Amino acid sequence: MKRTAILAALLVLAACRKPEAPATTSSATPPPPPAAQTDTTSTKAPYVPPPDVNVPNAPVPRNALSLWLRADAGVTAGADGKVSAWANEGSTVKATAGLPETRPALVQNAIGGKPAIHFDGGTNMFEANLDIDPAASPQLTVISVFTSETDAPVPLRKLYGADDGGYDRAAGLDNRADPLNYTIFGGSADAVGIFKLAANTPYLTVDSYDQTKKMLNVWVNGAAAKQNQKIDHGASLDKFYIGGSGTVYHEAWLGNVAEMLVYRRILTDDERKKVEDYLAAKYGLKLTR
To answer: Is 265 helix (H, G, I), strand (E, B) or coil?
Structure first.
């Protein structure tokens, strides 16, 4: 009986012991080292701005003028009036619409008796190979002559832009700055109210973005509409879109665009007034200064 009790106790002790680790020998092959980590993040190539638009005897400053669109010149339209490309003579950058459904229409006698490009508020939108990201173009001036067929702030509609969702540089109708329905995205400033747009009314706007000073200045028909507005833009889409905010949200414009100029710098007051005078005289617009 005593022997049996002793044996049973030994078996219990053996069961309670922690198992030993398997034996290793010096001849065992060590495990391979972990694979090296590879950074797959692509590096964006430095942006090379296009040459300045080269138009002899131009009625506007040409220094740092990257894009000049005017509906009375440089329009490539089919028999149906749909426009596939738009670029002024002397410009290396074109605004294009590849798919038929994205092409706006050329219309005559639209603004001040002059032609314009009409966007249908649906799928129409131009894309230009022009990077307005603040890293590529810290200073930017966009000058536009346009109308809108609606003053409703919803649905959202953008005259131009390159917005990827961060309130990037873009301008148009928006309900986030009530009671002002025409806004400009200010990055950290969200949607900045600029003025109360009226439907079917021609406007001449000068939008001056200065990321170096984090400041926005806007003139509407010659009058200062927003001055020294604090803004701070992050990275945006690397193309410039006309008739919408870009490929993320689109926000299609409904109305006409007769002329648009894009500078990679801030114009002086005298230069700005020279452009305004030229456009106002051409389209029969009254300036208020």
So the answer is: coil
